[in-house]
Q: What sequence folds into this?
């Protein structure tokens, strides 16, 4: 890391704030913390951070509003910190432009993994890297987007058109959670029925083709009530 | 006059209700008049015409709120009978013999019927209110029981956390690196245990209003099972679990977060308390009317007399030390609450080796 990656943390709980800041600093990031939305937004506008960690339950403003506001002028990755039982809120945050979410309480390793994933994706976007040309590789699974070819441990896997569309969508944002709605509108178009039964059926088929044991997936994980997440691409 | 009207219109009448009552009154009166015309055409008998009006009156008094519309209708009825159906036709003549009797009779009928109807409505309201209070009291009792059990279970890890923390802060200088690490590890483990407990409790708050009132949506069984296994392995990395699901995709209505919680609780109990080296197996069975989830361990088993009350959340008796099974009682009673709210059945069956916990969810 040549220049330290700069992270802005907006979180009102002092203890959590301390813990995150300590962990991040120990890992070599530069961190500024803000206890509320107003000072957080001013930190973002003045400092141009590489990533924002945002707690949705802030005292002065709704977290969703802040995401919307940031998204009007910047594409910095935003990771939302939220409580476990509020799926609706998470889906809303993701659909409003948040990049990922992390559920309270979380360990430092989980947090670091999410931050790395988000940073990697934003770097790819900024440098215009050849993500679309380069195949996805992870644990023996290779997805070649150009040739529309999927192989598992060297063996060809036959996916239908729709199945390939879903898998490649997940693989291109590997490591990030993709909501049901966004998969449906990408694969079946914006006017598709928002009933996600057809998506479940396709997912079940994909799982049976890719995973050894569909009950213990290694490549595509379910985030119940939210969407799917694919194993992070291992070539960065 | 104002006060008199106020007495006639009961307090609960809203503007909307009053409009509805007026409409009903006018409609019934119009109907009675129309029928009377028809009847009068045929038979020329005004006595039965009065009967028709009385019938309308009774209905009005029964349906509307308070006394007002009944009295109003009886006045209109008297005028109508006098005006339309008694000689001289199309003219009012209040000097007719027997006229005051008709008037008083109609008034009395409407008054009595209104009174009876109002009384009945009040009584029904009271009954409903009493029933609600009873249900509320029952719920309150359940909540109190749960709270008592929880605070008992929460105190143990909290004592550990507070003790370790205080010991680290106060005697930090006297402890060596290894002892310090041990203390912090203790805090870490106990807080993880607490978190698990809190998550269980939170899941209960998702069940609003008790039985059969969960937020159900069609969910894929294999996704719920696999997510439960992944989350359990996050907490207990050494846990060994054999999972299998049927070949075809099964979608059934459920609150996935809650069912996941049930699976995690059952698997965690099996891993921690069965004292077995063999992996726990978790599988799903597809039967005609429901889906059955099994969590089977191959450990020491559970005493038959304990199995009967294992889902009740009652204190554990016998020579099992309280610490070794802490939280187990509440976890299972929460499982039972969740499954009954889904209209399913949860049970534990002893096997030759170990125990089979299973629950069913209707398709």
A:
């Amino acid at each position: 890391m040549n220049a330290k990656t700069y992270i802005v943390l907006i979180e009102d709980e002092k203890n959590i704030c301390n813990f995150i800041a300590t962990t991040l600093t120990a890992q070599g990031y530069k961190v500024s913390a803000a206890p509320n939305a107003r000072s957080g937004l001013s930190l973002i506008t003045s400092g141009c951070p590489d990533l924002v960690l945002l707690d949705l339950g802030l005292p002065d403003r709704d977290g969703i509003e802040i995401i919307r506001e940031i998204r009007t002028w910047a594409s910095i990755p935003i990771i939302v910190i939220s409580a476990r039982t509020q799926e609706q809120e998470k889906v809303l945050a993701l659909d409003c432009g948040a990049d990922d979410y992390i559920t309270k309480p979380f360990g430092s390793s989980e947090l670091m993994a999410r931050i790395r994933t988000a940073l990697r994706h934003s770097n790819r976007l900024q440098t215009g890297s050849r993500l679309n040309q380069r195949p996805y590789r992870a644990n023996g699974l290779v997805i070649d987007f150009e040739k529309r070819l999927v192989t598992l441990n060297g063996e060809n896997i036959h996916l239908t058109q729709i199945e390939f569309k879903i898998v490649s969508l997940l693989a291109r944002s590997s490591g990030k959670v993709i909501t049901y709605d966004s998969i449906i509108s990408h694969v079946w178009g914006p006017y598709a029925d928002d009933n996600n039964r057809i998506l479940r059926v396709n997912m079940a088929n994909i799982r049976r083709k890719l995973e050894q044991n569909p009950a213990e997936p290694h490549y595509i994980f379910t985030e119940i009530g939210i969407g799917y997440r694919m194993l992070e691409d291992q070539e960065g | 006059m104002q006060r008199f009207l106020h007495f006639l219109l009961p307090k609960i009448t809203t503007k909307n209700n009053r409009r509805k009552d007026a409409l009903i009154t006018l409609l019934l009166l119009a109907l009675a008049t129309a029928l009377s015309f028809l009847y009068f055409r045929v038979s020329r008998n005004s006595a039965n015409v009065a009967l028709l009006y009385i019938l309308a009156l009774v209905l009005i008094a029964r349906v509307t709120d308070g006394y007002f519309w009944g009295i109003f209708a009886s006045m209109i009825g008297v005028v109508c009978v006098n005006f339309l159906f008694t000689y001289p036709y199309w003219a009012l003549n209040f000097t007719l013999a027997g006229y005051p009797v008709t008037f008083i009779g109609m008034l009395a009928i409407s008054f009595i019927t209104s009174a009876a109807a109002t009384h009945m409505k009040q009584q029904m309201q009271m009954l409903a209110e009493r029933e609600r209070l009873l249900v509320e009291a029952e719920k309150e009792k359940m909540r109190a029981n749960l709270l008592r059990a929880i605070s008992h279970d929460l105190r143990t890890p909290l004592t550990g956390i507070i003790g370790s923390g205080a010991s680290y802060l106060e005697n930090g200088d006297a402890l060596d690196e290894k002892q310090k690490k041990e203390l912090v590890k203790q805090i870490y483990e106990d807080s993880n245990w607490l978190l698990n407990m809190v998550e269980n409790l939170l899941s209960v708050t998702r069940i609003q209003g008790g039985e059969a009132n969960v937020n159900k949506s069609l969910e894929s069984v294999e996704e719920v099972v696999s997510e439960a296994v992944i989350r359990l392995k996050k907490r207990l990395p050494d846990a060994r679990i054999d999972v299998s699901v049927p070949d075809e995709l099964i979608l059934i209505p459920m609150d996935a977060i809650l069912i996941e919680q049930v699976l995690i609780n059952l698997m965690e109990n099996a891993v921690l308390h069965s004292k077995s080296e063999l992996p726990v197996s978790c599988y799903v069975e597809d039967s005609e009317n429901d889906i059955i989830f099994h969590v089977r361990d191959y450990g020491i088993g559970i005493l038959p007399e304990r199995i009967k009350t294992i889902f009740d959340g009652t204190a554990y008796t016998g020579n099992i030390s309280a610490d070794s099974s802490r939280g187990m009682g509440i976890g299972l009673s929460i499982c039972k609450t969740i499954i009954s709210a889904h209209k399913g059945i949860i049970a534990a069956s002893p096997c030759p080796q170990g125990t089979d916990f299973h629950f069913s969810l209707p398709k």
